[in-house]
Input
Amino acid sequence: MSDPSWTAVDDYIIDHLLGPDEVLATALAANAGGDLPPIDVSATQGKMLHLLARIAGAKRILEIGTLGGYSTIWLARALPPTGTLVTLELDPHHAAVARGNIAAAGFAAQVDVRVGPAIDTLDAMIAGGEGPFDLVFVDADKPGNVAYLRAAIALGRPGTTIVVDNVVREGGVLDTASDDPRIQGTRALFEAVAAEPRLSATAVQTVGAKKWDGFLLAVLGAAA
Output
């Protein structure tokens, strides 16, 4: 499902509020040259993530799902000079492309790209007491959403912002009978958030260059 006007409005927003960005354009070109799937967030969504990180005053950011580092760069740009970002990627080739993009953007010293199954890395981080993170962005395999949410809570603190991408799936989230594991994982995420008293949350539908989808936004409170 798409509408040409959605992309046209995104272009209007970019022209007026974002402008050209050679660093990010180069990163996308490197992703394409590396045969990475074109599933990065859009430019307007990347700027939204950047602003959310700034609003949260984030000094430590956790990203689950690196791909080629496009969203990573947007988030890293919100950090203070002493801030850090840990980003988790399953695919070694994707991680290699991301490291190149992140270095080209000037954030090699602030961004730690870790390769392997995210839940294994997260378990090790929790065991090692690596939290708290100020903002967690989840954009990885959707069947893992609930596990990633629980890890985000474990690695967070009161006030931590949690953002999860692709939670509307062109309305597929409404399909109670779906056998699509991505939709099942998304519906399970909503159930888990609704059942978690420490989270104050909403979800926002989006349309644009990425078609019809949305983000879940949550803030972690104190233990009930």
Remarks:
- Strands lie at 60-64, 84-89, 111-115, 135-138, 161-165, 199-208, 211-220.
- The longest helix spans residues 4-18.
- Helices lie at 4-18, 22-33, 43-55, 70-76, 92-104, 118-127, 145-154, 181-194.
- The longest strand covers residues 199-208.
